[in-house]
Amino acid sequence: MNIILEDGSFKIESDGTLKTTPDTIRKITKRAFMRRFTQAERIAIRASSDDIVIDIHEDLKATNNVDLDLEDTANALAYLVSAAILTSDRPDEILADGTQGEV
Amino acid sequence: MTINTSSLVGGGALPKLAPDLTAPTRWGGANIREVITGLNSGGVIITALSITGGAGYITQAFFDNLTAGSQTIKLTIDGVIIFNDVWTTTNTTPALIGGSSSGTFFYDPVSWKDTFLLEITSADTAFDFQYIYRKIL
Question: What part of B 39-98 touches A (C-beta under 8 Å)?
């Protein structure tokens, strides 16, 4: 039997399992964020001579964590699409909810 | 005849609800219920919910994703079996406790002093149970 709650003398049990909804993770480490890009995409970002792409890269290098909900993050990805470094479907994939291994 | 309420529940202070400091967020929307998943009976009696250690009450409870048909419900309150019989359910979300719908099996809330035990025997091997519970201090 699974213990659902144990609070002092109180105990709630069931042969089932309590459904828990983990909090949505929207902040991940810089390394985890970079790993969401393919190797070809990372190389293209580093090799770019576009001032804005360089600025995005430098800004990313200066941070510890990336907020996936930040407007700047979405704008940066949109620019990488316009610079033909990312395809149009990639921002949604890159901005997907984080996992415990990415925090 | 006068009954002093302080004489109830063994005398002393009146019973009161346990505080629920998360109530403002917890009581809004679908998160109001606790959800137990993965119940697997397969014709064997299993415990859907056991609460021990003190008084409380359940205002609403229902099974979810339960194949309609004959279920055997065994409800034991404070060690006394108050129901142990077949309940014929007609949909996949049959209401067991709480008068939220005309088809609820036990229309009134169910309360207890020390222990609550709900067991079920069903042919189903994968179903869920949802309930609203408050502790009484």
Answer: 39-40, 46-54
Cα–Cα distance measured from residue A102 to residue A96, given in angstroms and rounded to the nearest whole number: 12
E-only strand ranges, chain A: 2-7, 10-14, 17-18, 27-29, 65-67
Give pLDDT tens digits along chain A (103 positions).
888 888 778 888 999 998 876 667 888 999 999 999 999 999 999 999 999 999 999 999 988 889 898 888 999 999 999 999 999 999 999 999 888 788 8
Query: Domains of chain B (ranges plus CATH)?
Result: 33-135 (2.60.120)
CA distance B4 to A88: 73
**Residue of chain B with shortest Cα separation from A7:** B53
Contacts of B135 (CB under 8 A, 6+ apart): A10, B17, B18, B54, B55, B56
